[in-house]
Amino acid sequence: MRVLFLAAAFAALLTSGCDRQAGSQSEAVAADATEPGGPGLDRSQAGKAMPAVGFKDGEGEDTSLPAIAGGKPLLVNLWATWCAPCVKELPTLDALADRAGAPQIAAISQDTAAPDKVRAFLADKKVGLEAYQDSEMELSMALGSQIMPTTILYGSNGKEIWRFTGDLDWTGAKAAELLKEAR
Prior knowledge:
Blueprint: H1 2-16, H2 23-31, E1 41-42, E2 54-56, E3 62-64, H3 65-69, E4 74-79, H4 84-97, E5 104-109, H5 115-124, E6 132-133, H6 138-143, E7 150-154, E8 160-165, H7 173-179
Parallel strand pairs: 4-5, 5-6
Antiparallel strand pairs: 1-8, 2-3, 4-7, 7-8
């Protein structure tokens, strides 16, 4: 049953396109179109605790968002190798990770491929982010995220501040304005 659900979820992502908005997510995004960050910004889930769902780190060991955050602000990016907007923004997330004062970055692949393929993909793109992988897409399901890329900012208290759907230059002015909210 679980395999059928995962297959259906994966098929839905493929057929809907990784950057199209659907349902309640697009309505929430449209409501925030006047906020800094533009139409991709969604604050409807602000205050929700980060889920403790497990996934794999770059070494194939179990980890979770709370373990990565360690009481600090955390920027979580859900992406996939087959998602062009996801791949486009990965270098900007990598550059952001090197900036002083930036939140911790967890770019978590939703690929079902073997972990070594995700590591090789990041290496080929010269992206130095850790190769986190949620191959069963449990995290994206727990977050209610149906669109990639989706990026969520959590405060040091482990509560969601906002989420951004679609690609963004995470080194640009728009992102800098949004990231000022990291606390």
